[in-house]
Amino acid sequence: KAGVTQTPRYLIKTRGQQVTLSCSPISGHRSVSWYQQTPGQGLQFLFEYFSETQRNKGNFPGRFSGRQFSNSRSEMNVSTLELGDSALYLCASSLQGQGSNTEAFFGQGTRLTVV
Amino acid sequence: AQTVTQSQPEMSVQEAETVTLSCTYDTSENNYYLFWYKQPPSRQMILVIRQEAYKQQNATENRFSVNFQKAAKSFSLKISDSQLGDTAMYFCAFMTRNSGYALNFGKGTSLLVTP
How far is it, in rounded angstroms, from Cα B112 to Cα B115? Predict the structure, then answer.
């Protein structure tokens, strides 16, 4: 079956702009999580959505937001971009994201560069 | 605070040899899940092996096995018969119920397998 699909793969934006990243989970998976990966901070959890509801949120400013649609596809939005937002953004999907169904499958990520 | 420490930023091993990657973690919870993920140059995070904390038996997946020491909060990964395709960043991670099942990653170990 198809894996987790993230679009676009690469993105270059200017400081102050906003950006939207998309993630299509594996068919049947209802949990979608987002992570930011930078050389300095490593991998950090942004938020998790399950059945269109944000179920968990990491320690990021309100400029980072997301949503999930009824087909489980998720979008992540970053407003008023800063240079420090340059990172690889990874999306992961899992069946339920909790308990025994915790195996997360990752997409290839979106490389965001803010100039 | 829940933390994951990978004390070896870089490691090198010759093809067909065995290598062990170290990981320690800190959590006050009793029930949690531990993972090793591999991130090759393609950037896609791939699950290598997982371990439920309540299981005493160490997990094994083909050439990959773990040494889980719950009291010491240690979770090392052993790769036997190393192959060139094992060259990648390896991340140790865990998740707990109280963290909303968000993956908490270490900084990673860069493994190079040489001919």
Answer: 10
